[in-house]
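Risk register update: the risk of archive-format incompatibility is retired. Evidence:
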Amino acid sequence: MELFAAMERDDYEEVLFCQDKASGLKAIIAIHDTTLGPALGGTRMWTYATEEEAVVDALRLAKGMTYKNAVAGLNLGGGKTVIIGDPKKDKNEAMFRAFGRYIQGLNGRYITAEDVGTTEEDMDIIHQETDFVTGISATYGSSGNPSPATAFGVYRGMKAAAKAAFGSDSLNGRTVAVQGVGNVSFTLCKYLHEEGARLIVTDINKEAVSRAVEAYGATAVDPGEIIQAECDIYAPCALGATINDESLPLLRAKVVAGAANNQLKEPRHGDALHEMGIVYAPDYVINAGGVINIADELNGYNKERAFKQIAKIYDSITRVLEISQLSGIPAYAAADQLAEERISLLRNSRSTFLRNGQHALSRR
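Archived output:
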């Protein structure tokens, strides 16, 4: 892999390789863009097949956080960390404390949080070495588990997508097919059930499915059947890339809106949704509730204030779909455009300010 070529192609600012032999730490911190503010993005721990695969994942995720934070209206840039290792057996206190020292060394350019393979407890250990970490225990004044916040944001975004598709944002009587019933989507199902939606659910975890059936009267189907379920809204909330060549011909929903990351296997699948007239709520816009929630910790966490901001995901999805319709472009491209415009505007504004400042100094 030609690392500098990859960084130049998508304009990454910094990639830091972190190693601690004693604890077994092997981590990659990627900082994509800090135009809007310090880079905020979680720490993922995963058993990558190769080091190159880990680098590629870190870069991809960091850029995604730049766009997510920008569209969410946060004054934060995008970054991400991947730790190479098995989260079930390779974790230890020394590893996360060593990692915390690396974060501290960045002096606030990067702020981390939990992600796949890491937990609130891991963040507490990192917090022993640095203040540049969010998602720590509530005893430290933090917001705790971000799942409820993410679920609320997805619910709000789904309502906005429903309005674009059906003319009303009411989900009463709508059938929603939920793929995956983890922590986020179980709470999402609660919101949907309380509004009167009919639920179809699936998960490889049969216990999770049974819990949703019992709590919300959901109808259970096998994982392979969810994509072709007769429904109004398909909500991918587990694995990514479920919108692909095989699934598109089977999809019966008029709306795709869920909590999963990377729902489109490739951008062209977003083009296909657009051509089919299916309303798509771009994943990094609709699932931004968690990052909005933890970002509020930077101001001293206030749940009411955080959830008021998360509720605005409704407005963000509405704006994205308006741009999509007016410009005749797919929703994912409209979301990217919205993010890039905000970043570009501030970057140009700062450049103008600096030029004018230098000009004023030169006249003295």
